């Protein structure tokens, strides 16, 4: 079996298609959930990724046999599936000769295509000055393919002079300086990066065990050794020094519908799923959204698919959103922008805001100081939300519970209408209910109805008792 890592819009269908004959590794979270499986976290012999235009996939690996095996399977997807080997594979190293220079980079001649199954003629690449020192026409330069391009695109592969190899867990850089790792225990690993190479671990490495990290390091070191052997030679441009394999597979319309069938056997899939996604990138989220809704259709507001909606459109952890504080008189005040520091797919986010000094916190009677932080927990559909204010030393300065219409967590803002009456808890533990009078005024003005005012009061009473 060939180990395969799959990413992109075809991932579910191709996982289903390939899993009977090959071993799928490093499954993404959506893939693990859809297949209800824990795919091995091991280095992949072959990597599959959607092309930038979503028309097909790039199949890459170190060994030609492994890549060709996967490509042969993919070509059986449909009558209009086509495939081509790439003469300038991802991470391949060439001795090139500068053919011409431009304002921002140079075109580099990479020589004749050497493999019998590659399209005839010369290969060229583009070397940006951002990826090298300045070069002149006819200079010999050793380069690596940073980004291969499919044959159906009228573009050249992107080159760089710095050499690296990567897998799903780390990147090994030739001649680079070792970076501080976010993984606490990497120094305990028995295998170190090869001499002359520096390691940069990816976020995924934080979720796997020692055996996986050791295997990832060994894989990178083996590839680095082959590169070092090639680098021992003098530059004799143009020539290809290392020969990893990249092939491009293009899916026609029938093939895309065939992939729909593969995907449909795993999860809800609308007709034309891959056809629509291949047509325009912005449709991707809408397709997934519609399919997720169809899995559990319901008119019950309690069944609102918060997880699906926010997973597709936000907010998610790390996003920055505002708090849009509506008023019963129709005004809306932006209370500030904060970072989502925690996300619960059941419908709750935690928002953290840095407070500016000056003034005081309403009802708490506490001065705003430099370094203060407001931590707000917002739950979709709830009639209230709490904000805890803490000083720079972490000490709680008070809690303010806002009573409002049910909170809506939109991609860029949390929205509600404030109902005036609120409950506060001071730093000393004292609980106080505030602004009932303002609610009464709003009721008199007709800004809120009797039932809404009563709901606000009952919510405030419940919070007051709970605190």
Description:
This protein has 467 residues and is of the alpha+beta class. Among the domains are: 253-312, no CATH class; 314-466, Beta Barrel (FomD barrel-like fold). 25% of the residues lie in helices and 33% in strands. The chain has helices at residues 11-18, 29-35, 64-75, 210-231, 253-264, 273-279, 283-295, 306-313, 436-444, 450-466, and strands spanning 3-7, 23-24, 46-50, 56-61, 81-85, 93-101, 105-112, 122-128, 140-147, 158-160, 164-166, 170-174, 197-201, 239-240, 245-251, 320-326, 332-344, 348-354, 360-361, 366-367, 373-379, 384-390, 396-404, 408-409, 413-426, 431-434. The strands form five sheets. The chain has a seven-stranded mixed beta barrel with strand order 16-17-18-21-22-23-25. A six-stranded mixed sheet has the order 2-1-3-4-15-5. A hairpin with a 3-residue loop joins β6 and β7. The longest helix has 22 residues, at 210-231. It is elongated, with a radius of gyration of 29 Å.
Q: Tell me, what's the shape?
A: elongated
Q: Stretches where pLDDT falls below 50 for ≥5 residues? A: none
- The radius of gyration is 29 Å
CATH superfamily of one domain: FomD-like
**Strand neighbour order, sheet with most strands:** 16-17-18-21-22-23-25
What class do helices, strands and sheet pairing give? alpha+beta
What is the mean pLDDT? 87
Largest sheet: 7 strands, mixed, barrel
Estimated helix fraction: 10-25%
Distance between the termini: 60 Å
- Reading off the top of the CATH hierarchy, the class of one domain is best stated as Mainly Beta
The number of distinct helices, counting runs of at least 4 residues, comes to: 10
Q: Using DSSP, what is the number of strands?
A: 26
């Amino acid at each position: 079996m060939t180990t395969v890592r799959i990413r992109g819009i075809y991932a579910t269908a191709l996982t289903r298609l390939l899993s009977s004959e090959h071993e799928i590794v490093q499954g993404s979270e959506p893939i693990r959930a859809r297949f209800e499986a824990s795919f091995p976290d091991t280095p992949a012999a072959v990597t599959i990724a959607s092309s930038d235009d979503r028309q097909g996939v790039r199949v890459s690996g170190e060994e030609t046999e492994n890549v060709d095996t996967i490509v042969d399977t993919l070509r059986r997807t449909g009558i209009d599936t086509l495939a081509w080997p790439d003469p300038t594979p991802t991470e391949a190293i060439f001795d090139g000769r500068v053919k011409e220079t431009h304002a921002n980079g140079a075109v580099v001649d990479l020589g004749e295509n050497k493999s019998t199954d590659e399209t005839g003629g010369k290969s060229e690449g583009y070397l940006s000055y951002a990826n090298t020192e300045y070069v002149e026409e006819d200079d010999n330069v050793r380069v690596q393919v940073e980004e291969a391009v499919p044959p159906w695109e009228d573009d050249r592969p992107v080159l760089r002079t710095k050499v690296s190899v990567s897998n799903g867990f780390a990147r090994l850089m030739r001649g680079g300086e070792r970076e501080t790792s976010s993984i606490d225990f990497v120094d305990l690993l028995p295998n170190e990066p090869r001499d002359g190479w520096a390691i940069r671990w990816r976020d995924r490495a934080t979720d796997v065990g020692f055996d996986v990290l050791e295997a990832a390091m060994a894989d990178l070191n083996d590839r680095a050794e082959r590169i070092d052997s090639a680098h021992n030679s003098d530059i004799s441009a143009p020539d290809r020094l290392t020969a990893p394999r990249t092939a491009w597979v293009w899916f026609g319309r029938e093939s895309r519908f065939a992939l729909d069938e593969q995907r449909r056997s795993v999860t809800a899939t609308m007709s034309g799923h891959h056809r629509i996604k291949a047509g325009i990138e912005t449709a991707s989220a809408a397709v997934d959204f519609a399919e997720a809704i169809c899995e559990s259709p319901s008119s019950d507001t309690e069944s609102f698919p918060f997880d699906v909606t926010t997973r597709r459109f936000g907010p998610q952890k790390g996003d920055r959103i505002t708090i849009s504080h509506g008023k019963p008189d129709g005004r809306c005040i932006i209370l500030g922008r904060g970072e989502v520091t925690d996300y619960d797919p059941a419908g709750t986010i935690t928002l953290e805001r840095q407070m500016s000094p000056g003034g005081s916190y309403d009802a708490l009677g506490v001065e705003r100081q430099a370094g203060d932080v407001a931590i707000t927990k917002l739950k979709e559909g709830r009639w209230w939300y709490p904000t805890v204010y803490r000083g720079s030393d972490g000490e709680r300065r008070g809690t303010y519970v806002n009573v409002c219409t049910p909170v809506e967590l939109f991609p860029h803002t949390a929205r509600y209408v404030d109902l005036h009456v609120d409950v506060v808890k001071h730093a000393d533990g004292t609980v106080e209910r505030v602004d009932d009078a303002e609610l009464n005024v709003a009721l008199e003005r007709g800004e809120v109805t009797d039932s809404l005012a009563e709901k606000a009061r009952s919510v405030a009473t419940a919070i007051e008792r709970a605190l």
